[in-house]
Amino acid sequence: MRNLTKQTSAGFAVNEADKCVYYRHGGGEGVILCLYVDDILIFGTNLEVINEVKSFLSQNFDMKDLGVADVILNIKLIRGENGITLLQSHYVEKILNRFGYIDSKPSPTPYDPSLLLRKNKRITRNQLEYSQIIGSLMYLASATRPDISFAIKATSGYVFTLGGGAVSWRSCKQTILTRSTMEAELTALDTATVEAKWLRDLLMDLPIVEKPVPAILINCDNQTSILERTHLCKLDCWSQSMEILGESSRKLTKDLGV
Question: Which residues are in the Reverse transcriptase Ty1/copia-type domain (predicted)?
């Protein structure tokens, strides 16, 4: 609450789509603050306005200026002529060293489905350590390495780009049971549409973004799902449960220009 009061008193407004994003714009200059716990990323139209904000923050909070962003939340930012690349190779090595797997050799995963599993009669592995390993890998998969995840059931995945670069991406196991490829694709489309709405709301609330915000294009490679979304095909008897989900996605598409 103290953060909110101080920022708003300095002319910052809170982004309605993400309460951890503050922005200030005027006189052709703009600055955006992105907060995550005790980390802050500052984006500005020029260095002068960025230094002004850093001076304001240091006067009101105990703050350590780390300079140009290099590593944030264990994600390394590599700047190049064609944009910014996100890397986590250092985080991978950190995980391997922490849990003693730095010298381990690759092994085929997942196991052969015909493999006969027997009850473990050896010493039970530390469950806390196991959970920490899984959690570390899940963060890696959700941030920059979705390719390390193996699909054990239907998954939803999407990538949104802005200005030629990826700005939002996700690959996750679907939480509902689907009975056909079309239903799985519709579920993925619904997930992507919800994210598209949030991205559009985020951009709509940033004054430095050109208005009106254009419609967000979502591509899908499943023809049956595309036909169903446009009402050119009819759901069969066991797919009626997907109608509510599909209608929700269609409504967002119509109302928000997705």
Answer: 10-111
3-state secondary structure of 42: strand
Cα torsion angle, 104, 77, 195, 8, sign:
positive
Amino acid at 44: G
Portion of the chain with pLDDT greater than 90, in percent: 26
Lowest-confidence pick of 106-120, 196-210, 211-225: 106-120
Q: Supply the mean pLDDT for the chain.
A: 81
CA of residue 131 relative to chain centroid, distance? 22
Please state, in angstroms and rounded to a whole number, the distance separating the CA atoms of residues 49 and 54.
9
What is the extent of the structural domain holding 28? 2-67
pTM of the full structure: 0.69
Of 193, 157, 190, 188, give the one whose Cα is nearest residue 172.
157
Residues 86 and 96 in one domain: yes
The answer on 165 and 249 residing in a single domain is yes
